[in-house]
Design goal:
- It is a single chain.
- About 55% of the residues lie in helices and about 5% in strands.
- The protein has helices at about 5-15, 20-25, 30-35, 45-55, 70-80, 110-125, 130-145, 170-180, 185-205; strands spanning about 85-90, 100-105.
């Protein structure tokens, strides 16, 4: 997903119109529309305002190009110092280490649980075709990214269940199939129609 698609994804996830998000982020409606359509690339200051309005981390919009060992290690070392990442070994003794005995592990069980959810969810979509798999993976990642829990707080998730916590429902899979060959304009119209239908259903239940 590019930056514009991410902005649109989280805006729709919060049932916000472009006008509402533009007002909350204190930017013009025309500017936001250009961001979402990728006609313009927002600067960090604008992204920060949008992220605040959507109540998500601005890092979601950041692209990290990892091309060298230095790029990778700089991120790992920062995670080690700030996110309690452990670069450890399965052996009790460090005297005879080999590459396959080393692994990465977080001291915070909540982070490990979230990563476990991600792994299980990815396993659930392996039987999809490539195009659907890519869209489902983006959906799973965005759901997990929509989490402002502190990495320094204890917020455990039960690890007893062997089933994915974030499986795609039949409705999710049907949406992916229906929208797989649609243009962005068609998807927008479909979402508006779905929102209208949802509001009608809720109104009829009252």
């Amino acid at each position: 997903m590019n930056t514009g698609e991410k902005i649109k994804y989280f805006r729709l996830a919060r049932n916000m119109t472009q006008e509402q998000l533009a007002q909350e982020a204190d930017i013009s409606f025309s500017t936001l529309r250009k961001y979402e359509s990728n006609e313009r690339n927002p600067k960090y200051e604008q992204l920060s305002k949008i992220a605040t309005a959507l109540e998500i981390s601005v890092n979601i919009f950041m692209d990290f190009d990892i091309e060298s060992v230095s790029d990778l290690l700089s991120i790992l070392f920062k995670m080690e110092s700030q996110a309690d990442l452990e670069i450890t070994t399965m052996k009790e003794s460090d005297t005879s280490l080999s590459d396959d005995t080393l692994f990465l592990h977080f001291k915070n069980e909540y982070i490990n649980s979230v990563l476990r959810m991600y792994h299980l969810s990815v396993e659930d979509i392996k039987d999809m075709d490539i195009q659907q798999q890519e869209k489902a993976l983006a959906e799973i990642q965005n759901r997990l990214l929509d989490n402002n829990s502190s990495i320094h707080s204890d917020n455990p998730i039960s690890t007893d269940s062997k089933k994915s916590v974030l499986p795609l429902s039949s409705a999710d899979q049907m949406w992916l199939e229906l929208s797989s060959d649609c243009s962005e304009e068609e998807k927008e119209k479909m979402l508006k129609a779905a929102t209208f239908t949802k509001n009608c259903l809720r109104h009829s239940d009252k």
